[in-house]
Amino acid sequence: MEATAAAPAAFSKDEAQAKAVDMLDFINASWTPYHAVAEASTRLMKAGFQHIAEKDAWKLKPGGKYFFTRNMSTIVAFTIGQQYQPGGPFYMIGAHTDSPCLK
């Protein structure tokens, strides 16, 4: 089920438990910010995201899913909507894993 701004997704008890276990697996694999970035990179690649280099000119496409890392301790991931137009709105979510660490 996909969440929307108007109506958040409702999960069954089994789905909620599976998501909680997945989060615990991520936390257990993320002893340091470096481990968290490595684990997130692996998960993003499995989800169809493309790794791009921060220093390169990006060739982004509508519907694309991308991420880059910096210093092995920072990760930025983003998607581009199918109907995105330059100058249109965008949404961002941020988090950090450095202090305190996820563990």
Automatic annotation (TrEMBL):
<dbReference type="GO" id="GO:0006508">
    <property type="term" value="P:proteolysis"/>
</dbReference>
<dbReference type="GO" id="GO:0008270">
    <property type="term" value="F:zinc ion binding"/>
</dbReference>
<dbReference type="InterPro" id="IPR001948">
    <property type="entry name" value="Peptidase_M18"/>
</dbReference>
<protein>
    <recommendedName>
        <fullName>aspartyl aminopeptidase</fullName>
        <ecNumber>3.4.11.21</ecNumber>
    </recommendedName>
</protein>
<dbReference type="Pfam" id="PF02127">
    <property type="entry name" value="Peptidase_M18"/>
</dbReference>
<dbReference type="GO" id="GO:0004177">
    <property type="term" value="F:aminopeptidase activity"/>
</dbReference>
